[in-house]
Specification:
about 325 residues; two-stranded antiparallel ribbon; two-stranded antiparallel sheet; mainly alpha
Length: about 325
C-alpha cells in the first residue's frame, strides 16, 4: 500500500468516525497528523503537532507569535475586548475535563443531607444554594469545553475531508494522465531521433537536482518546439518555398527562420483540416497558440531569471501536453 493509499484510509477513518461519533477528538487528531505525515504536508504537520503537544510559550509566558497565528487561523481564535485570543487546551485535556466535570455534577446533590436545630431551614437553604451554584458553574464549564471540542473536531474533519478530495482527485488525474501519456508516447515515436533525444535531455536535466540545469531544461523545451515545428512543417509543407503562409482567415504569417510558432500554427491548421476527429485543439487554434506563447514566455525565464524545479516541471508538463495534442491531430 502506498503512502497516498494509507493517507486515504486515514481520511476515511476520521470522516466515518466523526460522522458516526465512534472516534474521540484526540484520536481524530492523531489520524490527521498521520495524514499530514504521509502526504508530507509540512504546514499541517506543524499545526497538528501544536494541537497534540501544546502551543509553545515565550519566556514571558505568552504564546509564540507564529504558533498563535497558526492556532488562530485554525479555529482556536476569538476576539475579546477588541483583542485576538486563542484557547490553548488540547483535545485530550478538554475530553478529560468534560468527563471529570460530568462525574462531579452527578455527585453534587442535597439528597441524603440532614440538618437539625434552630437554624436547620437556613442551613438547608444555604446548602441548596451552594450546590446549585457549584452545579451551574460546572455545567457552564462543561458547555464551554464541549463547544471547544466541537470546534477542534470540525477542524480535524475539514482537514481530513480536504485531503480525501485532493487524493481522490489526484488519483483520477493520475489515471487520466497515464492513459493520455500512453497515447502521446505513440505519437512521439513518429518523430525523428534528434527530436526524441531532446525529450531525453529534458528528463536528465529535471532529475539532476542542479538549479542551473532547470533553466537549461526550459531552453530544451523551447528547442523541442522548434525541432518539432521544423520536422512537421517539412512533412506537411514539402513544397513550401514562400516565406509567408496565408491562413484560412487571410492573415499572412512569416514561416521562415526562427518563426517556429507561426509554423506550428500552419501545421495545426493543416492537420485540423484533414483530421477525422475535431478535437479541442483543432477547433480552438487561437487558444493553443496563446498557450504556446505563454510557454515561450515561461521558457524565456531560463535566460532572464532563476528557475525553480517547480517552474521547470510546470513547463515540461505543459510542453508535453501541448506537443502531444498537436501530434495527435496526425490521426
Amino acid at each position: 500500500m502506498t503512502k497516498r493509499e494509507k493517507a486515504l484510509d486515514a481520511c476515511e477513518n476520521v470522516l466515518d468516525g466523526i460522522e458516526e461519533d465512534t472516534i474521540s477528538t484526540s484520536s481524530a487528531l492523531l489520524q490527521c497528523l498521520r495524514i499530514a505525515r504521509l502526504l508530507n504536508d509540512q504546514y499541517a504537520i506543524e499545526w497538528l503537532q501544536y494541537e497534540y503537544g501544546g502551543y509553545p510559550l515565550t519566556e514571558t509566558g505568552h504564546i509564540e507569535s507564529h504558533a498563535f497565528n497558526i492556532g488562530y487561523s485554525n479555529g482556536r481564535g476569538s476576539i475579546e475586548d477588541g483583542k485576538k485570543r486563542i484557547f490553548t487546551e488540547l483535545a485530550s485535556e478538554l475530553e478529560g475535563k468534560v468527563t471529570a466535570q460530568q462525574n462531579a455534577v452527578s455527585n453534587f446533590s442535597t439528597q441524603g443531607a440532614s440538618v437539625s436545630g434552630e437554624y436547620a431551614s437556613v442551613a438547608m437553604n444555604n446548602l441548596t444554594r451552594s450546590v446549585a451554584t457549584s452545579t451551574g458553574s460546572i455545567i457552564t464549564s462543561i458547555a464551554v469545553s464541549k463547544k471547544r471540542l466541537s470546534i477542534l473536531r470540525s477542524q480535524y474533519y475539514d482537514y481530513a475531508l480536504k485531503k480525501q478530495i485532493e487524493i481522490s482527485f489526484g488519483n483520477a488525474a493520475s489515471q487520466v494522465f497515464s492513459e493520455y501519456r500512453e497515447n502521446v508516447e505513440n505519437y512521439f515515436s513518429s518523430l525523428s531521433k534528434d527530436t526524441i533525444i531532446k525529450l531525453q535531455a529534458i528528463e536528465d536535466k529535471i532529475n539532476s537536482g542542479n538549479a542551473e540545469l532547470y533553466s537549461q531544461a526550459l531552453t530544451t523545451c523551447r528547442r523541442l518546439f522548434e525541432s518539432t515545428s521544423n520536422e512537421l512543417f517539412n512533412r506537411y509543407f514539402p513544397n513550401q518555398s514562400e516565406k509567408l503562409y496565408k491562413t484560412k482567415s487571410g492573415k499572412e504569417l512569416d514561416v521562415s527562420g526562427d518563426h517556429y510558432r507561426n509554423r506550428l500554427f500552419a501545421i495545426i491548421e493543416k492537420l485540423d483540416d484533414h483530421s477525422a476527429e475535431k478535437s479541442i485543439i483543432g477547433s480552438n487554434i487561437i487558444y493553443l497558440i496563446d498557450w504556446i506563447e505563454n510557454l515561450n514566455d515561461l521558457q524565456c525565464k531560463g535566460v532572464h531569471s532563476d528557475i525553480t524545479r517547480q517552474d521547470a516541471i510546470r513547463c515540461i508538463i505543459q510542453t508535453y501536453i501541448c506537443l502531444g495534442d498537436i501530434l495527435s491531430l496526425q490521426k
